[in-house]
Amino acid sequence: MQIRNMRVSNRIIFCSVLFILFSFSSCQKKKLMKEDYMPWMQNPENGLHKKKTIGDIDFDLQFYPVETGLAAATKDTTEGYNYFTLKINHKKGDLLKLNMTSSQDYSSRLYYYSYGFQSALVNDEGGILVPCEVYHFERSYDMTTVKTFVLAFPRTKKLGTTDMVLNIDASQLGIGLVKIKFSKEELASIPDLVL
Predict the structure, then answer these.
(1) DSSP string covering 22-64
(2) pLDDT computed for residue 23 by the predictor
(3) Is 91 exposed, middle or buried (0-12, 13-18, 19+ CB in 10 A)?
(4) Is residue 81 a part of any domain in this protein?
């Protein structure tokens, strides 16, 4: 009887160890090599590339975690930045030239998108509103109607612990506030980059 009880308890211990090992292995994040990382990030099915259309205006927003440009060690901290590439396209033509009445209109719009639009961008990290700190307007010199902006917001929370919503004040476009959301599940699913 004693031998039988030992076998049962050994089986219980063995099953418990297997369960613990399986639990830890399933909690580990996906790991991707550098050549697979960017295609994964840019795939809309993974939730980090969002598109929104309001009227004739398309908003295309790509989120990049800090490790795509900096050290991978900072992803699981509040250090660093959350990077985005925002593309805005008006279906009827160039935003800078649309409904122009004078050459001054073009200059004013160019100045606004080069400098003033930065203040219209706020990242909401779980209720903490973070203004855009790094901003760059990529001027296309009439080669495309798409306007591209590279944005960075200081990170206030660990990725995947809260939703993140980029707020765009598009009142200059006659729209108002545009919100594009990344869920905490989408952010938590970001794989580790294998360097």
Answers:
(1) HHHHHHSPPEEEHHHHHHHHH-GGGTSEEEEEETTEEEEEEEE
(2) 41
(3) exposed
(4) yes
The total of structural domains in the chain comes to 1
Q: In which band, very low, low, confident or very high, does the pLDDT at 157 lie, cut at 50, 70 and 90?
A: confident
Whether residue 72 is contained in a domain is answered as yes
Q: Please give the C-alpha separations between residue 23 and each of 27, 69, 155, 160, 179, in angstroms, as whole numbers.
A: 6, 32, 30, 19, 36
Query: Which residue type occupies 176?
Result: G
User: pLDDT tens, 116-150?
Assistant: 999 999 999 999 999 999 999 998 887 888 999 99
User: Do the Cβ atoms of 182 and 48 come closer than 8 Å?
Assistant: yes
Any domain includes 41: yes
Residues 86, 117: contact at Cβ < 8 Å? Answer: no
Q: Which of 34, 36, 32, 123 is nearest to 82 (CA)?
A: 123
- Report yes or no on 4 lying in a domain: no
The enclosing domain of 163 has a CATH number of 2.60.40
